[in-house]
Predict the structure.
Amino acid sequence: MGTNRRCKTTHTTKEKGVIFGAQLTEEGIAQIYQLIEYLGKNLLVEGLFRVPGNSIRQQALREILNSGADVDLDTGDYHPHDVATLLKAFLGELPEPLLTHRHYHAHLKIAEITLFDERGNKTSVPNKERQLEALQLLFMLLPPANRSLLKLLLDLLYQTAKQQDKNKMSAFNLALMFAPHIIWPKNVTANDLQDNLNKLNNGIAFLIKHSQKLFRAPAYIKDHARMLFSGSETPQSKDDMELYAGAGVRGLPTKRSSEEDGSQLHTQEALRELFQHVSNMPESTKKKKLIRQFNKQGTPVRESPRASNQKHGRSRSFGGLIKRKVLGNTVTNERAGSGVCQTKEVNKENGSTSFTRTPISTEQHSSLSL
């Protein structure tokens, strides 16, 4: 009888969904947020995130979270050290780091962005403004679930570091605790990362110190968003809403703008009908003269519908803009598996375009991949 009950309990838990070691989802984030919320009320505990908790209590708490149940952490059954250690365990057991394998080399490159001296030579002083901008762009490319949890986590660590006089946990101390769990590639040892450890630790400390700025889009991205979102549905996520700020709320135009838009649409429609009428006229000198006038002033031809297999204009435009800002003014297209870099160059004088194909190394390919 006892065995049957144990089997039944295990089956029920599996149906509800295990979050530890599973793919990151919004449901999993909702469960883990209970830990983050509790820790936010216990920031003064000395050695928070450094001192390990009780393993038996942690296992009990893990099972509750895996079952999908809510847990009241304010009862005193669990110590903040238990909760802090379990949060790190959850991050460490994700199938891939929170910052993703794909962006690992990009973070190493961002750490290398430094200022130049008056002679144009690189210095050892970090260019914090450029690093911040690069990270803002990189975080826009994260999967939504990763981005959501990262924002919650960095805010918690930022608030923790603000209380370092009490808890003895500075941004760098916290970075040492979390770098292995959120950026280290899976199945790699500290010895294999030896050359990059300082970069990684300093990089995570930078994220913690500047967390309140990292999820804001650069000004030129916001300007670009205003143009793209002006004729589309209102974005749904909070981050997209930040991009949308200042663009106006769709569906609530002012009276003047409504009148102007209506008048403009009416004029364009009338011009299209007139052009269609002229096009249907028999061939004559008068028709040719009218066609020339239309060509001179700009024929109001309807836009052709977008092909169904074409990518969405907004995402394509944002991707191109972000890559230009991260990789520079030269647009580089990497052919998967070809080992060839195709560089597009545009002649500003005559508008002509040329392409140059050059071999690239594996290391270059990894560092350019975002």
